[in-house]
Amino acid sequence: MSKTYFGFGIADNMFAANCAVTRTACTPETAKEIIAQGVVVVLNPSHALTIQAMNERFGIHVEIPAKAPIVGLDPGDRILVMSVSGLPRLEGRHEYTQAEITDAYFRFGLWTVHKIAQVMTVIL
Q1: What is the pTM of this model?
Q2: Order of all β-strands in the sheet with 19-26
Q3: What is the pLDDT of residues 97-111, one digit of tens each?
Q4: Which of 1, 28, 38, 105 has the smallest set of CB atoms within 10 Å of its CB?
Q5: Distance between alpha carbon 90 and the CA centroid of its chain, in Å?
Q6: In angstroms, rounded to a whole number, what is the distance separating the alpha carbons of residues 98 and 1?
Q7: 101: number of CA atoms within 13 Å, CB side?
Q8: Using one digit for the tens of pLDDT, what is the confidence trace for 37-59?
Q9: pLDDT score of 100
């Protein structure tokens, strides 16, 4: 059965050696709908401040795992990724200001894993 994951990033080792992926941009509203349908949360609890910014900015609340899980995506699986840019590194302090959160850029992408043969059929 296919799964949908939610995290702040992806890594090459999440994917099988021979697969293809597609990425579709999502609005925050669409991301919230996907999350409401049920996702496997793969957020790293050490990113508490980014999680807080996500809560404040979009009202997205998910249960944070005690430890970041290891993810292996199979064909049919999806991962919703929220990427953030523009938040400064926190050096000597422990939270972002409201102005920093307001100025940050957040975007959502839904990555779907396909078998190579499926994608090749579409391309040909």
Answers
A1: 0.82
A2: 19-26, 105-115, 78-85, 4-7, 40-41
A3: 778 877 888 999 999
A4: 1
A5: 21
A6: 41
A7: 14
A8: 999 999 988 887 788 888 888 99
A9: 81
Q: Which residue in 89, 108, 112, 91 sits closest to 100, CA to CA?
A: 89
Spatial distance between the Cα atoms of 17 and 50, rounded to a whole number of angstroms:
30
Residue 24: both structure tokens together = 């579709």
**Distance in angstroms (rounded) separating the CA atoms of residues 60 and 108:** 12
d(CA 65, CA 96): 22
Tens digits of residue pLDDT in 73-99: 999 999 999 998 887 777 776 677 778
Q: Tokens in use for 124? A: 């040909």
Per-position b or e across 94-115, b if 16+ CB within 10 A of its CB: eebeeeebeebebebbbbbbbe
What's the average model confidence in pLDDT over 2-31? 93
